[in-house]
Every structure is written in structure tokens, then in C-alpha cells.
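Troubleshooting log. The previous structure file for this entry was overwritten by mistake, so regenerating from the original sequence record. Sequence copied from the archived sheet and checked twice against the printout by T.R.
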Amino acid sequence: MGGFLTTRMFRWTGCGEPGLSALYRRVTAATLLGAFETGAVGTTAFINNPTTEDTGNLGADSYLNREFPMSDKNFADIKQIAYRQTGITLTDHKKNMIYGRLARRLRSLGLKNFNQYCELIAESGNQEMGDFVNSITTNLTAFFREGHHFEFLEQEVFPALRTKNLPQKRVRIWSAGCSTGEEPYSLSIVMQEHLPTAGWDVRLLATDLDTEVVAHARRGVYSGDRVDSVSEERRQRWFLKGGDDQAKVKPQLQKIITFKPLNLLNPWPFSGPFDVIFCRNVVIYFDKDTQKKLFNRYADILADDGYLFIGHSESLHRVTDRFRSLGRTIYQKVK
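Regenerated output below.
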């Protein structure tokens, strides 16, 4: 049974309902500003967390004898290009994962070895760069992940914004690294539950480096087990139940969100200001210099006293002095 039930027909029944679980094209300023008044677009989480694709340190010879020979120089070139294009620092213990993911690209392109692939991605203006970036990124996310962040929004940030922004009646939030959409849809839920809607201009930007996950997020369709962490009350209010054990976010959640691909290291075709930025589990994969530049840019585009939320394993300590810590990876702009 395909298709999704209409809002009027929707009803969530039973106690074993679907739940939650755990994606580069250039976007012109005109496109962004046309789609979203002040625009903003994000990046994804990158491969550095241990996965089943990791097999430890394999000898260099083992890569020369594989389906697609890959030399140490090939891997060094790949690391250099990845850093230049995305700011990601690839470590040697991820060599096996990189090989496996890029080998799929070599098969698709009909190439014989990594010498050919490295020559291709080193060419200026090549058409492969988007697929290369998509291949080396990974996306780990969930609805209402790190729930204390959303509680802080509800209890502290939104009440303050309702007062502070009353004259202009405008709120802007940026999910910079939206992955497959669970984070921005979680934000949309709490925004619509706790911010004024009538007469207010409330918008959310959701961006990511990976074009595939952005497309997935824009569709807003999830397998049933992806929404387990969403309360039954919120599932009934904000999701439609479809065939094949799927769940789709309601149009009301989508209408305040603009999804766009963006490389955070490139110029941003928007000027803000934003009241809140979520950039969680992204900068941990950047070196310190790149982190410093990025956090300074975030401070520049945040409104005075704006809020920055980062991942549980990330910190601004010795990276920037433009924020003060509010605890639990929540920061507020001070200059």
C-alpha cells in the first residue's frame, strides 16, 4: 500500500508504531535569497567515527593488490583534495573506509585504478567533485537528538526571543549540517509549538554539504523506526502514516523550512542575522584553524546575544573568545 494518508484521515494506532533512527551543487545567492529572505545553507557530519567499515591499519601492499590499486600517494592526494574542498581531515585509519566508498565511484565511472580517479578529481571544474564529497561523508542523526538542547530552546531561548524580537516579529534559525532532516524537523516542531505564528515571520534554514541527504531531508519521508524517539502525542500531531511502515512529516512542518546544499568553507550567499545556529557534530572533523575561522563567521552572522549549539564531543575552548558557555555545549555570542 503506497501513498500517505491525508491530514484529516491520519490516525496513529497501536503501541508498536514506527520510530526514529539513527546527505554538492553550487547554489547561487539569487536562488537562496529568492527561496529564503535572508538565506542560509549547512554541512554534514564526516567520517571519523568508528564504523564496521574500519578494519584497522592495513599494509600498503594490500591496497595495491585490490580490485582498484590505490597507492600511498593516491590516498595522500585524496586526503589533500578532501581537506581543500571540505575542510575534513581524513586520518590514516579511515583508509579502508575511503577505499570502499570510492571504489563504488570507480566502478560507476569505468575507471581501472585510483591514479585515474585522482587525476579526474584534481581537474578544475570536474563534474565528479559532488559525488566525491558525498562518498566521503557520513550522516548520523536522530529526531530530538541531545534532547537537552531542545529543552533549552523551549525554556530559555524562545521566551527571550518572544520579548527581544517583538518589534520586528521575526525569528531566524539555521541548522548548519542538517543531514537527512531529523534535526530541522525537530526544530520546526518546537518552533511551532513555542513561538508565535500569527503575524510573525518565523523561518528555518537547513543546509548540508551532501546533496543526497538534502534531497532526502526535503522529501521528509522516513521508515517507521526513525520516529521512535518522538512522543506519541507529537507523532499524531506532526506526522502522517503511510504504507510500507513509513512516516511523513506534515506539510505544516515543511512550510517554514528551506533546504539547500552548502559547503561551509565557501562564501555564504546570505547576511543574517540569525537568532540561533545549530552546528552539531560537524566541526570536530575540522582542524583548529578551520574551526576558528568557522566559529568567527558564525559569530559575525549571529544577532547580538544569539545562541550557538554544538555537538556533545565538541568545544569552543581555546578556539574562539566570541562566545560564553551556558553549559552542555550551548553558547551565547558576547562579541
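Residues 1-57 have pLDDT under 50 and may be disordered. Archived copy saved in two places this time.
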